[in-house]
Design brief:
mainly alpha, 214 residues
């Protein structure tokens, strides 16, 4: 997905068409292997911390399953964003209608989003229980910088909503690989951002209806 974002292509053009079936099969095999390992461990009276190890492994697998479930939602969000804001054209030095600014934001968002997806993949691969992956704090900073920039910018409402939806899905995946640690303050900020976008949408719809009436 990071490659698709970086190359300004639709995710379906880059990802394997059989990814859904392979992911479903992988999750099923992981669950079966974990259950088999648990049975073997349960009957091994000499194994230390039998119940603790099982609980940790099960929690890690559940976290990874939630990330896997969100994967297709992220692909759909990327597809929506690609439809709303295709790759901007090369900026013209004599441009006066804002194309250069749009292009700059497009390149900035794509670079940040690709970096965020790459770091998130590292966190997923390193999700083994215990402490979160060392790169998680840096991944969080990338996510926070993108959300702040999204909140400050102006542009198409549909494109902004697509950006926010994508970032909220990635935030949820980050919470999964962090062990489900939810930050109350961050959740409150997310709700505030959603409320603000909804209010803006209502105002723009009202203004458009008034213009059509006139």
């Amino acid at each position: 997905m990071a490659d698709a974002v970086r190359e300004a292509r639709h995710p379906d053009e880059v990802l394997d068409p059989g990814r859904r079936d392979r992911l479903t099969d992988l999750v099923a095999r992981a669950r079966g292997a974990l259950g088999q390992a648990h049975e073997s461990l349960r009957w091994n009276v000499r194994a230390p911390d039998r119940h603790t190890v099982w609980h940790l492994d099960r929690r890690v697998l559940e976290s990874l399953e939630r990330v896997a479930h969100d994967t297709e939602a992220v692909v759909a969000a990327l597809g929506d964003l690609a439809a709303q804001r295709p790759a901007a054209v090369r900026p013209d030095a004599y441009d006066t209608d804002g194309t250069a600014e749009t292009d700059a934001w497009d390149r900035e968002f794509r670079a940040g989003c690709a970096r965020l997806l790459t770091c998130l993949a590292l966190c997923v691969r390193g999700c083994r229980g215990g402490s979160p992956h060392p790169v998680l704090p840096a991944t969080r900073r990338v996510w926070r910088e993108l959300t702040e920039r999204c909140g400050d910018r102006r542009g198409s409402l549909d494109a902004r909503l697509a950006e926010w939806r994508l970032l909220m899905l990635l935030d949820r995946s980050l919470q999964h690989v962090a062990g489900g640690r939810h930050r109350t303050a961050q959740a409150a900020r997310n709700r505030t951002a959603t409320t603000e976008l909804t209010a803006v949408a209502g105002e723009e719809a009202h203004a458009q209806a008034a213009a059509e009436h006139r």
